[in-house]
Amino acid sequence: MGWYQLDALVHLVASLLVTGYTLFWAIMALALGRTARPVEAARLLGVVRDSRWPHVIVPWSLRLRLPTVGWLLLAATALSGVLAGLLGHSVAVGGMGGAMTPLLALKLVLFVALVAGHALAMRRPQAPLLYTNLLLTVAIVAISANLMR
Amino acid sequence: MALYQISVTLHLLAAMLWLGHMFVWSLITGPALKRVEPPRTAELLRERSVFMGAFGWPALALLIPTGLYQLAARGITLGDIVSLSFLELPDGPVLAAKLLLVLWMVIYQAVWAHHRAPFAVYVNMAAALLILAASVIIVRGWE
Fold it and tell me: Among A13, A112, A124, B109, which one is most buried in terms of CB atoms within 10 A?
């Protein structure tokens, strides 16, 4: 497997984890919104935000809060995406590594919106923001599918 | 948008939502919620986090027909798969590995997905990663 293909796999896995992460938050917002009063739902979303990973082996002080895990996943997606662009140019494979197209520009704008959405949602988790983040992720994935050859 | 593009979009979305949910819940958020205090709140949050269930069957209901359609668009019919004639193609062995792993995931979904089976879950996630690698090779080439 060449470097470009390996990076494409890393990008795919990182994107998959970001999708699962935003889906998790949307599910939590929906579930708590349906069963708890708004104030209690907001408090519980805050409890989820402050939970830490991993839950074993690593000392408590070194465990990452969920928003930090989210930032790491977004960073891995962005870095592997940029690298795919550079490697794609060098091997002239096209697709992810092709020139800037309107669709790719839209994907990048939506990714920046997702980063901003994550920053806002993790300051104070609220259902509308968490749903928006999931929609942004789905839109980015849908665009990515159309960037592939 | 051409039918092929719609198929690829649905295929990718179904895979990302299903596998993303499975990986993130099993490896990150599920374990993280275990240590929330008090334990009663942890239990409530973990129970709420899976209230929609998993997405295995709905995702497979999209993935299998869209996958078969995309193979047909590349000249590989269901008949080629049944007769194993696709193995003679350059990507045939990689596609065979992917199809076998998909078969494993269908079996997992039918037998273990709704029961407590930690070992099977990790084998399933390894299978999912190998399927993603095979997909990258099929779409992007080996090198």
Answer: A13
Q: Are B49 and B25 in contact (CB under 8 A)?
A: yes
DSSP label of B58? H
**β partners of residue A64:** A53
What is the per-residue pLDDT across A63-96, written as a single tens digit (0 to 9) for each? 999 999 999 999 999 999 999 888 876 544 444 4
CB distance B16–A19 less than 8 Å? yes
Query: Left, alpha or beta for A99 (phi > 0: left; psi -120 to 50: alpha)?
Result: beta
Contact A69, A21 (CB under 8 A): yes
Residue type, A28: M
Q: Which residue of A66, A93, A138 is in closest CB contact with B32?
A: A66
Spell out a b/e string for A88-117, using b for 16 or more CB atoms within 10 Å of the CB, else e: beeeebebbbeeeeeebeebeebbeebbeb
Does residue B59 have a pLDDT over 60? yes
Nearest chain B residue to A134, by CA: B17
Q: B-chain residues within 8 Å CB-CB of A19?
A: 16-17, 20
Cβ-nearest to A5 among B11, B17, B140 = B140
Tokens 């494993």, residue? B104
pLDDT computed for residue A101 by the predictor? 86
- pLDDT of residue B131 exceeding 70: yes
CB A33 within 8 A of CB A41: yes
Which portions of chain A are predicted below pLDDT 70?
A: 89-98, 148-149
Q: Chain centroid to CA A131: how far? A: 13
DSSP of B12-24: HHHHHHHHHHHHH
- The minimal CB distance from A69 to the residues B28, B36, B140 is found for B28
